[in-house]
Amino acid sequence: MPIEELMYMTLTKTTKIRSLLIIMLVLIQCHAFPQSDDKNGMQEGWIIGLHTGVYFANSYTANYYNGREGNENNISFVLDNQYRKNEILEYFNATTYVYSQEDLPQNMKYDPEMNIGFLIRNNITDNWGIFANFNHVKLVAKGNFILEFDPDQIVTEPDNRVFEIYGVEERTNINIGIHRQFDNLSPSITYYGEIGINVNNTVVEESAIQLGDLKYSIVNRYGGNRSYVPGLQQPEYDFRLGGLGFGVFGGMGLKYLFNEKLTVDLGLTSYVKNINLQDYNSFTVHWAPYARIMYNGFFDFL
Fold first, then answer.
1. Tell me, what DSSP letter sits at residue 90?
2. Residue 91 has pLDDT above 70, yes or no
């Protein structure tokens, strides 16, 4: 991918995230009224809502994509394959190259990404409700590694070139929990807390390296010790990388009451959960600020 396109995409994502956070802060500042004893807002019944926010994934699992030996997908699958090596050397007009495990990224990170979803809640009382929330996010982890071309040639400086290694995954979060509304801060502002369990599903879409215009997947879909051979009919296995993970979540937020039917929530959810990526499935902390619009009475006409 051209560097100009990457810079544009990064700028666009950053602008969206900043705009959302600014809107949330402005709304909170504008409506942070003094304490009131009035009780408004939640009504018994079913509520549905649309959710959008920013997902900050823990960087621990990003190193799943760094290509090191011992990882499920490693860079040697491509760089040590003689046929791929010949393609790379021809492209860069070189005779040989070397690389080191120490030159692979040690601390890859995910970019913050927008997530979207929906929520359904049953308000059992004016204070308590049970809910299920579904949201989806696509995450990208990026890092760099070094190839040294023609190391045996007599030159003034080593021909070290930096290339990109990256991974792309999709995560779906299912949150099931309890919603508790507290006293109003004003006639139109109240606050709430939520707690519950999380089930997440992770699907690895890509684990690859980019060398100029050459892009190679480092996922071995041939199975076992088999590797790429040009012109040979080799079956590729359509296996899935990733899987189900579990955890807990909690959060708080402000609720702006337009009327008895319509509210807007601005909040923050924190997760402690494991992501099902091989050898990277320890429990870690993730967090996600969000905004959601809620409608009470959607099922009244049924």
1. H
2. yes
